[in-house]
Amino acid sequence: MHVKSAVFIKSAVRPSHYPPAKLPEIAFAGRSNVGKSSLINTLVNRRNLVKTSRQPGRTQLINFFDINGAFTFVDLPGYGYAKVPAAVRRKWRPMIEAYLTQRATLRGVVILLDIRRDGDPKDLELINWLDHLGIPAPTVLTKSDKFTKSKRQQRKNAIRRLLPADSTAPILFSAKSRQGKEDVWAAVEGLL
Ligand code: GDP
User: Fold this and answer.
1) What is the pLDDT of residues 143-170, one digit of tens each?
2) What stretches in the chain show pLDDT beneath 50?
3) Which of 52, 75, 83, when mutated, tests ligand 1's pocket best, judged by the most ligand atoms within 8 Å of its CB?
4) What is the pLDDT of residue 112?
5) Is the distance from the beta carbon of residue 139 to the nearest atom of ligand 1 less than 6 Å?
6) What is the predicted pLDDT for the residue at 58?
């Protein structure tokens, strides 16, 4: 994918604040600190389109970005960060549920999992929820530079076994080495 432009549109909490549903949309979801901002910035070749937060998970907003005037990327708020106040944490589910069930232009949700972890219950709950809603949800294993090539394959196979049976194979990705960038784009283009 040749990215000519990547522009922040707006942040929203509820459907009435979303930008008009015109272009096909791809959302990105994962635990706080999984490497979601780094992944999106790598895909669009920007250092700081999505701000990497010092206090992960404190801002619970849905951020919309226009890519090439052709489709929209959506950065969903990260989940699972222990230091987020309980009152903020409780708002995550209804906010995401409204987005997933009401956004007509949503084509799929890219799920980010840290290659070092066995997708925890929150990740698997989201993955199964998307499966139930019939929303395609390819998975990307972030920070794959943390392991050697053979260990990466081992982790990929182990994590795949935790996913719903009809899931596609997880994609190995590193924002540090940019390995897997074209594979993630191929998955996104497949969804679009
Ligand atoms: P977010 O909270 O999911 O948006 O995560 P960030 O993109 O802000 O990344 C969280 C931390 O992980 C930061 O310290 C990043 O530098 C680091 N990180 C992100 N991607 C990678 C990666 O591919 N490899 C390595 N080694 N570190 C990464």
Assistant:
1) 999 999 999 999 999 999 999 998 999 9
2) none
3) 52
4) 98
5) no
6) 60
CATH of the domain at 39: 3.40.50.300
How many A from CA of 20 to the centre of ligand 1?
31
Quick one: 13 exposed, middle or buried, by C-beta within 10 A (0-12, 13-18, 19+)?
middle
* Dist CA 99 CA 141 (whole Å): 24
- Length, in residues, of the chain: 192
Report the C-alpha dihedral over residues 89, 54, 32, 133, rounded to 10 degrees: 70
| Residue 153 belongs to a domain | yes
Q: How far is CA 56 from CA 31, 34, 80, 120, 142, in A?
A: 9, 10, 10, 18, 16
3-state SS assignment for residue 105: coil
Structural domain count, the chain: 1
Which pLDDT belongs to residue 57? 54
The secondary element (H helix, E strand) that includes residue 114 is strand 106-114
Q: In terms of Cα–Cα distance, which of 10, 9, 16, 19 is closest to 95?
A: 16
CB-ligand 1 contact for 175 (6 Å cutoff): yes
pLDDT at 113: 98
Owning domain of residue 148: 6-191
pTM over 0.90: yes
Token pair belonging to 140: 């990307």
Q: Is residue 45 part of a domain?
A: yes
